[in-house]
Design brief:
Blueprint: E1 5-7, E2 12-16, E3 26-29, E4 38-46, E5 49-59, E6 67-71, H1 72-77, E7 86-91, E8 98-102, H2 109-118, E9 126-129, E10 138-141, E11 144-152, E12 161-164, E13 170-176, E14 182-189, E15 199-200, H3 208-213, E16 218-219, H4 221-236, E17 245-251, E18 255-259, E19 266-267, H5 271-282, H6 293-307, E20 313-320, H7 343-354, E21 357-363, H8 366-374, H9 395-403, E22 409-412, H10 414-426, E23 427-433, H11 447-451, H12 462-490, H13 500-506, H14 513-529, H15 533-536, H16 552-555, H17 561-571, H18 576-594, H19 604-631, H20 650-653
Parallel strand pairs: 2-6, 3-5, 8-13, 14-17, 14-20, 20-21, 21-22
Antiparallel strand pairs: 1-7, 4-5, 4-7, 8-11, 9-12, 10-11, 13-23, 15-16, 17-18, 17-19
């Protein structure tokens, strides 16, 4: 990775809009500064501290060495001031082994899988995840947003930090239980090795002090399986209205149904069926016999084919300590795997022909077994080398998962089992596969646009500067007066307080379109988003929603809505039909203040005129609102009368009602 650092001191930010190479969090830089694609961090400094944004850095021919091309939407969202307060550095990123995303509202599991399969910009995407204070992280795949649930290493352990999706990253998709119907056949290994007590016991709340003294307490593999199945039942029962059919099958050298009691599948949807499933789990027990995984898988495929619900996910969950898949002569003791068909080939056929997916849960592992086996050395007949039929062996389980779509494989003790089955109860995970080969679009700016020097540094007419400063000051003074008057007359502020750095940004005069849109974001937050909620949207009858209905006149006459319309125009342009309508409305506002419908990007005079016109309108609006508030009766001096909420009819429309709360 090429290490570098850009900052406002030596680099120009050039913004890009519309589809193209620079969008989302993708930045373009000069190939002379960056030879290969890299992860990076944009650091934005202001009075509130430093914010860090994960970005994807791409070398692009034609970009000058002193330029970084950035998405306009990202600049606006994070309030990046192009000429100060930022720096861009390269950074090392982790490539996750598994990236689990959540199924978004709308598409089905199949549709969402197809979207992820074909997303051309997913491979290489950079994001940060796993920090407690971080909000949810969303990844845009072909205009569909997927929430990141977790990033795992190749061993299934959770990761956190800065990530870059690589070609080897395995994508999985989690469908929550309320959205996913799934038909599940659980194959429970009940062979003789499941009697081995090498699983550390989980202490109950009342026995924690005792467990600290008896750290060697263990339970059998069979009891660990039964506890984990109980966790699955508890979790799945929290979701109503989802068509899920279930079967529990015990197997060793043969197999038999446990739930339902005869061969078939049953929907677990009421207290009676839940109770019967719990009873079936409690009846599971091991036998001193061999293991035929192939026969059990064949039966599971038959159950899903004959009794499953069309459209539901088809899932087999194989729970085993891992038997050796090699015939063992009769004269040798211990378990053997028998069967007329190779389980791996059989599972491959079931996946390809019936769409059946497989999760495997490997009970115990070599470390747990070795610890337990060494503790048995005092027993008669103990040998340093345990019989191979006792030792967990998960090699074939991994091969089964690979041919069945690459879904979940979990190996470990009781904590691993309970976590897996609780998650299975809350939803279903589907393996999507590797991300598609990246196909990057072209940079949407021409060489002329990249090379053009900004005009924003030209000397400003002192008279224009004084005019702007006076207008901005008028607006902010009016803002303060409205806050004070509304608090005195209504009992709350019409405009919620804003941080000082927002006012500092509002005072800055813009020089081009990028400056203006950044300023517009702040102005919209201060004057629109923090406005008393009933005043934000005009209603037919202001007396029904406003404590002082006269305020509707200045706030609803169109001057405040200018901020809303321009913000939508510059920030939301994906829907072309909406874009055309916004273009018409925004064009009218711009023409009103500048005499032009579409100023050039670097026409400083036009953007300053637009900014000045909006500020003057806001100042006038707020002064009118202050006059209305000032003329309203002082609540302390008002004569005693019935509560405002009790007044009805026309008399209430011209009065004033006092509320203790400020916002809806």
């Amino acid at each position: 990775m090429t290490a570098f650092k850009f900052s406002a001191a030596d680099t120009r930010l050039v913004t890009a809009t519309g589809p193209g190479l620079v969008a989302d969090n993708r930045f373009a830089v000069s190939p002379s500064r960056l030879t290969d694609e890299s992860a990076g961090v944009l650091k934005v400094h202001d009075t509130g501290g430093t914010r860090s944004v994960a970005v994807r850095l791409l070398p692009a021919p034609g970009v000058p060495a002193d330029v970084v091309v950035v998405p306009a939407a990202l600049v606006h969202e994070h309030r990046v001031t192009p000429e100060e307060g930022w720096e861009l550095v390269s950074a090392d990123a982790i490539t996750p082994g598994v990236l689990e995303l959540e199924l978004p509202p709308g598409p089905s599991l199949d549709e969402a899988t197809t979207v992820l399969h074909g997303a051309p910009l997913l491979c290489g995407h950079v994001f940060a995840h796993g920090f407690e204070t971080s909000p949810d992280v969303w990844i845009d795949a072909s205009s569909t947003l997927f929430r990141v649930r977790q990033a795992l290493d190749h061993g299934g352990r959770p990761l956190r930090g800065l990530f870059r999706i690589g070609p080897e990253t395995r994508l999985t998709l989690f469908a929550p239980g309320e959205r996913s119907g799934v038909d599940i056949v659980v194959l429970a290994d009940c062979s003789g090795s499941m009697s081995i007590e090498d699983i550390p016991a989980a202490p109950s709340d009342g026995d924690k002090w005792l467990s600290r003294l008896r750290t060697s307490a263990t339970i059998s593999r069979m009891n660990a399986l039964k506890d984990a199945l109980g966790a699955m039942i508890d979790a799945r029962m929290r979701y109503d209205g989802v068509g899920t059919r279930f079967a529990l099958v015990r197997f060793d050298h043969d197999h038999e149904p446990m739930f339902p009691s005869r061969w078939g599948m049953e929907e677990v949807s009421d207290a009676h069926s839940v109770q019967r499933l719990r009873e079936a789990v409690s009846l599971l027990n091991y036998r001193q016999s061999g293991t035929d995984i192939g026969k059990a898988l064949h039966k599971a495929g038959e159950l899903l084919h004959r009794y499953g619900v069309p459209g539901n996910e088809r899932l087999v969950v194989l729970v085993s300590d891992g038997a050796h898949y090699a015939p063992i002569p009769d004269e040798r003791s211990g378990e053997s795997v028998s069967g007329t068909q190779d389980p791996v080939s059989l599972m491959e056929d079931l996946h390809a022909g019936l769409g059946i997916r497989l999760h495997v849960v490997g009970i115990s592992d070599e470390a747990l077994f070795d610890r337990w086996w060494q503790a048995q050395r005092h027993r008669p007949g103990w040998t340093p080398q345990a019989h191979e039929s006792m030792v967990p062996n998960h090699r074939m389980l991994g091969e089964l998962v690979t041919v069945a779509g690459g879904d979940r494989q979990r190996i470990g003790g009781l904590d691993v089992l309970e976590k897996y089955f609780a998650e299975l109860g809350s939803g279903v995970v589907r393996a999507v596969g590797r991300p598609a080969r990246p196909r990057l679009p072209a940079l949407q700016l021409t060489p002329e646009q990249l090379a053009a020097k900004p005009q924003r540094r030209a000397a400003t007419d002192p008279r224009q500067r004084r005019t702007w400063e006076a207008a901005a000051e008028d607006a902010l003074v009016a803002y303060s007066r409205v806050c004070e008057a509304s608090r005195a007359r209504l009992g709350y502020q019409l405009l919620r307080s804003s941080p000082p750095d927002d006012f500092a940004r509002l005072r800055r005069q813009c020089a081009d379109r990028a400056d203006f849109t950044a300023w517009l974001s702040v102005a919209y937050q201060v004057f629109n988003e923090r406005l008393h909620t009933p005043l934000r949207i005009p209603k037919k009858d202001p007396a029904k929603v406003l404590d002082l209905p006269q305020l509707a006149a200045p706030f609803w006459d169109g001057r405040m809505s200018q901020l809303h319309e321009l913000r939508n125009f510059y920030h939301h342009d994906r829907d072309m039909a909406e874009r055309a309508e916004r273009n018409r409305i925004a064009g009218g506002i711009i023409h009103k203040h500048t005499g032009s419908y579409a100023p050039l990007e670097d026409d400083a005079g036009a953007w300053r005129a637009l900014q000045l016109g909006l500020v003057r309108d806001l100042a006038a609006l707020l002064n009118e609102a202050h006059a209305i508030l000032d003329a309203a009766p002082d609540p302390e001096a008002a004569p005693e009368e019935p509560p405002a909420a009790a007044r009805v009819g026309p008399a209430a429309a011209g009065g004033i009602r006092i509320k203790s709360q400020g916002y809806d």
